[in-house]
Amino acid sequence: MEKNILNNSIDRSWIEKLDNPLVISGPCSAESEKQIKETAIRMDTSYVKVFRAGIWKPRTKPNNFEGIGKVGLQWLKNVKKNTGLMVATEVANAEHVKLALSFDIDILWIGARSTASPFTVQEIADSLKGKEDKIILVKNPIHPDLELWIGALERLFSKGVKKLGVIHRGFYTYKTSKYRNQPNWNILLNFRSILPRIPIICDPSHICGNKKGILEISKIAFHFFRCDGLMIESHCDPDHAWSDAQQQITPEKLLEMLKKLIYSNNYNDEKSQNQLDSLRILIDEIDENIITLLAERMKISKKLGILKKKYNIALLQKNRWEYILNKSIKLGKELGVSEEIIEEIFKIFHKESINIQKY
């Protein structure tokens, strides 16, 4: 499918009629009717327009809480009736779609694990044929595969679904990071350059994996990358939540954050300044990655030192050092990095590694 067809034919009416940013909030998981009702009642509907709750929870391992199931859909329907909020939940197969639609759930989203499976997305898309009035959001796949993310949208669009949007929830990383899921803001910029009309909702709860970073990520998403909305997990008693307790906040804390976010005057709306700040955030993210990887490299160097002492091996291995340096210089040239920079950086790495291995 040509990208411009998807881009030009998308229906943005559902988000353009709502306040900016669109805020979707509610608990990670529906646990009880009381919990859903209390959380919803405590929402400030002048800021929050959509109430979310996980009904089915795809878990990494079996025997964990996998969602309350069908009964929770009635609780969401009651929230919609009693508060006037739109309601949303995640679907992972055709049966989920069928049940959610039968309870008049307004917004369905496809989770990161599901987005990673074209077969699953196709099943969901097929089940939505003839349901063009529903809003469908697609979370980014677990790994930073832009084409897979866009492909999910194309599968839905080919079945007549035009009220589409995406959720940026960050990407899995193998390295240690301060984030649960790496934001990888550059992927978001690339997505927008290809499909600028697709609404983007940022999910700082899943990016951070904790409460303390939510406001910072929300500011970056809203002010610098001009996301159309936010999905933030909230719970009436987050410390006792059945899933992801560490990243959920109370509705009152949510309101406090949103006021700081929307009324903050610390951000320059000039286009040039916004572009500069966005690029600086990309650099900051790369710098954090470099430092984290450097720390991992030093840990391995320390282990090497222990082994060298154990087996009476000389700390300086000239052939190994020359191999690393030459290989790195060659790779740097291929990627457009000067030989001088590579040599200087790796000399510092090598010197520090030797110092670590001495002790």
TrEMBL record:
InterPro entries linked to this entry: Aldolase_TIM, Chorismate_II_sf, Class-I_DAHP_synthase, CM_dom_sf, CM_II_prokaryot, DAHP1/KDSA
Classification via SUPFAM superfamilies: Aldolase (SSF51569), Chorismate mutase II (SSF48600)
Alphabetized UniProt keyword annotations: Transferase
Top-level EC class: isomerase
Pfam families found in the cross-reference section: CM_2 (PF01817), DAHP_synth_1 (PF00793)
Alphabetized SMART domains for the sequence: CM_2
Domain (Chorismate mutase) ranges: 270-359
Signal peptide interval: none
Enzyme Commission numbers on file: 5.4.99.5
Protein name: chorismate mutase
